[in-house]
Amino acid sequence: MCGIVGIVGRRSVAAQVTEALQRLEYRGYDSAGIATLENGRLERRRAEGKLVNLQLKLLQSPLSGAIGIGHTRWATHGRPNETNAHPHATERLAVVHNGIIENFRQLKAELQAHGIRFDTETDTEVVAQAVSYAMAQGLGPVEAVAATLPRLRGAFALGFLFAGESDLLIGARHGAPLAIGFGEGETYLGSDALALAPFTDAITYLEEGDWAILTREGAEIRDITGEVVTRPRQIIAAQSYRVDKGNHRYFMAKEIHEQPEVVGRTLAHYVDLAEDCVVLPVALPFDFAKLSRLTITACGTAYYAGLIAKYWFEKLARIPVEIDVASEARYREAPLDKDGVTLVISQSGETADTLASMRYAKAQGQHTIGIVNVATSTIAREASALLPTLAGVEIGVASTKAFSCQLTVLLCLAIAAGRARGTLSVVDERRLVDALITVPGLMAEALRQEQEIEQLAREIAKAKNVLYLGRGTAYPMALEGALKLKEISYIHAEGYAAGELKHGPIALIDETVPVIMIAPHDAVFEKTVSNMQEVAARGGRIILVTDAKAMALTEMETMATLTMPDLEPTIAPIVYAIPLQLLAYHTAVVMGKDVDQPRNLAKSVTVE
Ligand code: M6R
Fold first, then answer.
1. Which pLDDT score is estimated for 375?
2. 555: CATH
3. What is the CA radius of gyration of the chain?
4. Which residue positions in the chain have pLDDT lower than 50?
5. Strand stretches in 55-152, DSSP E
6. Which atom of ligand 1 is nearest to the CA of 298?
7. Which residue from 605, 606, 607, 608 has its CB within 8 A of the most atoms of ligand 1, so it is best to mutate?
8. Residue 338 Cα distances to 235, 306, 327, 335, 454, angstroms
9. 247 alpha carbon – ligand 1 mean position (Å)
10. Closest CA to 576 of 465, 479, 506, 489
């Protein structure tokens, strides 16, 4: 995850910017850079590798400007070298960026048609050139940014510095976090409050779609429509800098909102964004083409991620998948082929049952692939190969961002398997990768349903039982949605395959039971609609989660509808995770439950 820093200061800011960048090192990076204004002219220093390399450059060739931006880059588009390091600049401006600009190719082609030359392999340069081009057409810096932001698609945060503007920085948030800090005659921009801790404890977090004009006097914040808005300023207590909740009440809320960013980061680790193909970060110790089946083992939410992956592996790679919860797998004495493969999925990498079933698979002579969030954990260390999920530290007991990152890695792996087995054409791989690249932006769009979900949660909070139904990959999503709700709100919730309804669960349906239908517009959508009709006919209260087009096709009365963006159905589970998580979260908040530490539960289950 890249880190952004900006300072409109009173004296030379280079040392402060690098100090703030140091505090963002935990996010991971492979190059760093800084730009300041020297007598109104933009000057940059950038270096590959660790911050110390940048600091050495600054020693050799210091910068003295009192306004500047800095960046630590985690390479997505293009190699981690100095040319691709941020800030990217034109004669008019410099920009730092976190996230992915999905439509950079299209924008680049447009700008190239105007004769603009590009020097880097990055998507970020397109932002610098687009704003610069708008300025060349006569717009001022603020107007040029205002004209450019609506043209950018994806999930990102940006910081701008302009030549000749010694009292102006602009920051923008669209799917990746950005905070503003207020000092004495100085104003700051940072990826999080932690970066700004040495300078100020007065912080305002930008909300989704906000952008801000920073001067020494303070900041004017505008929302996505360009209206000037007021956002709360908070004083961050010194001790909360370590594990910062941002402007969220609970870690779970923060982690739900971080998903566009961490999924983008995970994607960048598994996908060559320039070539539109999956590139695994490690060489696997086996050949997918030679496997006759795949075994998956995990617990809880990680198990549901595995269940979704079963659909992907079977469809895209035509490989049979056997999956079991680890507490059963470890004692089932299942025969496993020597030289076969077991996928082990775990956020913590310490779950006792998952670890034991991995060791069982190893003892049978299997290769084990750990899909793990904590890279130093036991499962990560003992697996034959590690495919990390780059969700960052997950604190809320209810797993959210680790789940969506697990799905991201699993879909990439299924694509790689399909390619190796010759069951997925280059064209189909490209189509799926193109769809995957849109996921962070679609997740940011799904997050915009939060207010409606909050309203709906007030109704759900009154229920004693809730049913979740879905078909295809929406079936494990139903299981996951129900798990999220029960673990933090303590409302009894069950997930079922929608087609199973008439084999028993339909007996539960009456007007007191909300039924959440997860129905992406996929190949089984019509069948799901039939199941919805069965529910409606029995007075069930339907909450439909689908996209606008599919919604129009249902013509059914619902208690509520949650509109998801249009998407390629394969990626639906990653995006549809958001409304299910938000619904569980807001229901628990309405009910006054301890969202981050629900009763009887532990984050890491290291006992049987
Ligand atoms: O750390 P792990 O992913 O191995 O944990 C597995 C489960 O304990 C975990 O997913 C649990 O179900 C969560 N509370 C779900 O939100």
1. 86
2. 3.40.50.10490
3. 25
4. 239-241
5. 67-73, 88-89, 93-101
6. 4
7. 605
8. 58, 22, 22, 9, 50
9. 25
10. 479
Substitution site in 256, 299, 358 for ligand 1 pocket (most atoms within 8 Å of beta carbon): 299
Contacts of 191 (CB under 8 A, 6+ apart): 1, 2, 3, 4, 5, 24, 27, 98, 157, 176, 177, 178, 179
At 262, the amino acid letter reads: V
Which helix (H) or strand (E) segment holds residue 90: the answer is: none
Residue 537 has a pLDDT of: 87
Q: How close is the Cα of 252 to the center of ligand 1, in Å?
A: 14
Q: Are residues 495 and 560 in the same domain?
A: yes
Q: What residue numbers bound the domain in which 218 lies?
A: 3-241
Take residue 42 and report the two structure tokens written for it: 């933009």
Q: Is residue 442 part of a domain?
A: no
Euclidean distance between CA atoms 149 and 160, whole angstroms: 12
H or E stretch at 359:
helix 352-363
Give the per-residue pLDDT at 608. Answer: 59
Q: Any idea which residues carry the catalytic annotation?
A: 2, 603
For residue 266, being part of any structural domain is answered with yes
Atom of ligand 1 nearest to the CA of 603: 14
Output the pLDDT for position 116: 96
Judge if 280 and 308 occupy the same domain: yes
User: Which residue is it, tokens 């929608």?
Assistant: 498
What is the 602 CA–ligand 1 centroid distance (Å)? 9
Alpha helices, H only, 66-181: 104-113, 124-136, 141-148
The type of residue at 538 is: R
pLDDT of 603: 74
DSSP string, 367-399: EEEEEES-TTSHHHHHSSEEEE-------SSS-
The single-letter code of the amino acid at 182 is F
Same domain, 416 and 465: no
Q: Whose CA is nearest to atom 4 of ligand 1?
A: 346
Residue 314 buriedness (CB in 10 A; 0-12 / 13-18 / 19+): middle
Residues 217 and 328 in one domain: no
pLDDT at 239: 47
- Residue 271 domain flag: yes
CA of residue 293 to ligand 1 center, whole Å: 25
Pocket-testing residue among 255, 301, 581, ligand 1, by greatest number of atoms within 8 A of Cβ: 301
The DSSP H or E segment spanning 548 is helix 548-554
DSSP for 252-263 reads HHHHHHTHHHHH
Residue 201 in domain: yes
pLDDT of residue 391: 94
Do both 229 and 301 map to the same domain? no
The answer to whether residues 60 and 150 belong to one domain is yes
Return all residues near 290 (Cβ < 8 A) that are at least 6 apart.
none
**What is the per-residue pLDDT across 221-230, written as a single tens digit (0 to 9) for each?**
999 999 999 9
User: Under a CB-based contact definition with an 8 Å cutoff, are residues 53 and 61 in contact?
Assistant: no
